């Protein structure tokens, strides 16, 4: 079967090139989407930390946990 595909690829390379370029486009779109999601999540987390004024330092939180349990 592979010899048949190889002979077809030697005669007409355009379908293979089309599939390779489609794979490249899909890969670049996925990388761009993951970067966009990463930036969005980090901005939302930073905004949440900036707005949340009641956040206590870690030492106080640990002390509260010991007292509560």
Number of strand segments:
0
SS strand fraction:
under 5%
Rg over C-alpha atoms, rounded to the nearest angstrom: 27 Å
Helical content class: over 70%
Count of alpha/pi helices: 3
Shape category = rod-shaped
Main sheet makeup: none
Low-confidence stretches: none
Straight-line distance between termini: 68 Å
Round the mean pLDDT to the nearest integer and report it. Answer: 79
| Structural class computed from helices and strand pairing | mainly alpha
Order of helices and strands: HHH
Question: How would you sum up this structure, described in words?
Answer:
It comes from Bradyrhizobium ottawaense. This is ABC transporter permease. The chain crosses the membrane at residues 20-51. Keywords: Membrane, Transmembrane, Transmembrane helix. The protein has 69 residues and is mostly helical. The protein has a domain at 35-68. The protein is 86% helix and 0% strand. It has helices spanning 2-11, 14-51, 58-68. The longest helix is centred in the middle third of the chain and has 38 residues, at 14-51. The model has no long low-confidence stretch (mean pLDDT 79).
């Amino acid at each position: 079967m592979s010899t048949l595909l190889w002979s077809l690829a030697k005669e007409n390379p355009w379908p293979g090139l089309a599939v390779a370029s489609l794979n490249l486009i899909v890969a670049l779109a996925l990388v761009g989407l993951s970067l966009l999601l990463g930036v969005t999540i980090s901005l939302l987390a930073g905004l949440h930390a900036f707005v949340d004024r009641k956040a206590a330092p870690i030492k106080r939180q640990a002390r509260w946990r010991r007292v509560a349990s």
